[in-house]
Amino acid sequence: MRGLEALTLSLPPTPGQSIVKRPDNGNLFSLGSVFQGKGYDVRYAYGGYGYFDNMNAFFGGNGYRIVDRVSIPSQRIPFENIWGVADEALFDQVLDEIDDSHRAGKPSFTHVMTTSNHRPFTYPEGRIDIPSHTGREGGVKYTDYAIGRFIDQARAKPWFKDTVFVIVADHCASSAGKTELPVERYHIPMIIYAPGHIQPGKVERLASQIDTAPTLLGLLDFNYPTRFLGRDILHTPEAEDRAFISNYQALGYLKKDILTVLRPKRQVAAYRVEGESNLVSVPVDPTLLREAIAYYQGASELYKGGLYRSVP
Questions:
Q1: How far apart, in whole angstroms, are the C-alpha atoms of residue 233 and residue 207?
Q2: Which of 6, 14, 28 is nearest to 297 (CA)?
Q3: How far apart, in whole angstroms, are the C-alpha atoms of residue 107 and residue 39?
Q4: How far apart are CA 262 and CA 162, in angstroms?
Q5: Topology of domain 2-239, CATH
Q6: Where are the chain's structural domains?
Q7: pLDDT, tens digit, for every residue of 152-191?
Q8: Under a CB-based contact definition with an 8 Å cutoff, are residues 155 and 98 in contact?
Q9: Which has the least CB within 10 A, 82, 113, 141, 279?
């Protein structure tokens, strides 16, 4: 849920449970509200039932139209499990939804949440060379297959040439480890694909999920009032790069190679990140500590004080 929160609200984690699961979490400033302000059809598409984890209430209360298991005709579903329909069925529905907007002459933004890469890792047989229900590798490969199939089908659509596809994980496979915040297990991929507009390349910048929305809107050259705490990483100085990693007990702020960790009861620790996973204890840098507190406490105060509401 923290990943959905970050991608939608561009806000670092706040104390307590995810905003997605809280009451009174509607009418917030979000990626969807920016697109709405530009006249877009805005959707949240999920292969399961949207009431799970309060997603219907959160996305519906923030201007997204819900497309979930209820919206998908049974004849379109080759397979489903406890999480929902197979990813390919969800993407087929999404194609129809985007087609509807295009025929109506409206641009659209669709946030799609896949489910097949979850235990028990089951999916339709015959799609990939790994049998269903045999582990995470199969779940990942099937989701990759479904995304590739979706893009191949989208390529034949009249709206493809003017569409930006963003593929990003909502969370890592596991954050459990010997340290409270194993940095390497918070490293996730993001791919931005728009062959008619974006040249192939690799961006090796330190960034967080909260930077996804501002970066996408920057690529679209949108001019908009913002409350986002994330940054457009393609148009901001590299010296300002930082990342946020957290669990239910610790809040981490990573800048360059220093991880500053805020813990309960005002405990603070700092580590130098060596290689992919080695953390070496170092003295706390007062400047980095102030920045970490400003981000995390600022996000909490903005939400609690009602200051993160949608811009009229």
A1: 7
A2: 14
A3: 7
A4: 43
A5: Alkaline Phosphatase, subunit A (3.40.720)
A6: 2-239
A7: 999 999 999 999 999 998 877 665 544 578 888 889 999 9
A8: no
A9: 82
